[in-house]
């Protein structure tokens, strides 16, 4: 086992994502020596580089497998997992989603294709900064925290991203294949609360259409 790997395990970093700064504090070595230890752990397959300055131990050395939702939080702090990824995870749509899709409040879209961890996307939406985490909950997955949109918030994020207009609940049933049981969970009070999130009028009319159809 490589020196850095042993240090990470002994220092309770086994199941954590670590930064260059944390590695520097842990090793207390010169930059050149630190660089060599990191590279040796990478070549041995014991350490995985998520992106520059961000690492995680290989699953075979961890007590819990790394969760992609947790990785997404570190790739873009302040983001939350949403869109089809969250809808699938909550069981609202039947299809599996091959990527971890997150939403961010403004900025530029970004994607990362990682050979070991999968594909991550970050989509900016026009949201009011004060309310951008309304309808987002903190989950602990494999002992790793992550912010994930509730099903309704994920649906509205998707409507905002796709620029949908409200076409009736039958459209949700057939286009997204959302079940009757899931639709019955939508509450008007929550819809009203989520209307404060978005800056686009199109989403407001989508919510108003849902309310008119009886999601009250």
How would you describe the overall organization of this protein?
It is built from ten helices and nine strands. A hairpin with a 2-residue loop joins strand 8 (136-141) and strand 9 (144-149). It is elongated, with a radius of gyration of 20 Å. The chain is 40% helix and 21% strand. The strands form three sheets. It has a four-stranded mixed sheet with strand order 4-5-7-6. The mean pLDDT is 93. The chain has helices spanning 3-10, 20-27, 31-43, 68-75, 83-89, 151-162, 169-176, 180-183, 188-194, 201-212, and strands at 18-19, 47-51, 54-57, 80-81, 99-105, 110-114, 118-125, 136-141, 144-149. The chain is an alpha+beta fold and 216 residues long.
Derived from helix and strand composition plus strand pairing, the structural class reads: alpha+beta
Distance between the termini: 59 Å
Contiguous uncertain segments of 5+ residues? none
Calculate Rg over CA atoms: 20 Å
- Strand arrangement, largest sheet? 4-5-7-6
Q: Write down the overall geometry.
A: elongated
Mean pLDDT: 93
- Classify the oligomer: single chain
Major sheet summary line: 4 strands, mixed
Strand content: 15-25%
Number of helices, where a helix is a run of at least 4 consecutive DSSP H or I residues: 10
Return the string of H and E elements.
Answer: HEHHEEHEHEEEEEHHHHH
């Amino acid at each position: 086992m490589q020196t850095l790997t042993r240090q990470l395990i002994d220092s309770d970093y086994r199941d954590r994502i670590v930064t260059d700064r944390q590695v520097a504090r842990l090793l207390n070595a010169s930059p050149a020596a630190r660089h060599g230890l990191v590279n040796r752990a990478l070549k041995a397959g014991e350490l995985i580089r998520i992106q520059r300055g961000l690492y995680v131990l290989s699953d075979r050395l961890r007590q819990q497998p790394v969760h992609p939702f947790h990785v997404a939080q570190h790739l873009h702090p302040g983001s939350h997992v949403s869109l089809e990824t969250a809808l699938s995870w909550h069981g609202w749509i039947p299809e599996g989603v091959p990527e971890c899709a997150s939403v961010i409040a403004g900025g530029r879209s970004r994607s990362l294709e990682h050979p070991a961890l999968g594909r991550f996307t970050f989509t900016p939406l026009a949201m009011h900064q004060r309310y951008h985490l309304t309808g987002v909950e903190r989950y602990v997955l494999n002992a790793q925290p992550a912010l994930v949109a509730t099903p309704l918030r994920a649906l509205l994020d998707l409507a905002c991203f796709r620029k949908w207009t409200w076409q009736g609940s039958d459209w949700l049933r057939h286009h997204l294949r959302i079940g009757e049981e899931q639709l019955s969970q939508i509450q008007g009070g929550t819809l009203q609360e989520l209307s404060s999130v978005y800056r686009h009028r199109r989403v407001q009319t989508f919510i108003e259409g849902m309310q008119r159809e009886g999601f009250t």
